[in-house]
Design goal:
mainly alpha; globular; 2 strands
């Protein structure tokens, strides 16, 4: 992961990913980080056609965050509850980062997730 926000490969992959996801899942408005985390949470929950309450939408974003940060050692998958919701355990507290550094971490983790899924290369 780059120490600053000027990683050209990350930017190229991020832009490619956002274009793909926007074309596939949006009505033309570019997805933001939160929207991508929601899609990851939906994917991991595995029930994309279910109707969700507002609280469920927040939980889906949380699942997305935990999923992308799990390979970095911050979270560990714990269990799936009786309603099918995955739960994660915080393994290591997230570092205190400036906004730009946090953005790079999250975008890098999202890009890594979609690289592993074979969505982008």
């Amino acid at each position: 992961m780059a120490k600053n926000g000027r990683d050209p490969q990350l930017k190229e992959r991020w832009d490619k990913l956002i274009l793909f996801l926007t074309d596939t899942f949006s009505d033309g408005e570019a997805l933001d980080v939160e929207g991508v985390l929601y899609l990851i949470g939906l994917q991991e929950f595995g029930k994309p056609h279910q109707r969700f309450k507002k609280e469920d939408n927040v939980n889906l974003i949380h699942i997305g965050v935990c999923t992308i940060l799990e390979p970095f050692g911050y979270y560990r998958f714990d269990f799936i509850d009786e309603d099918g919701w995955p739960h994660f355990e915080l393994v290591e507290p997230l570092p205190h980062l400036k906004a730009g550094e946090q953005s790079v971490l999250i975008k890098s983790a999202i890009v890594d997730y979609f690289l592993k899924q074979g969505v982008i290369s």
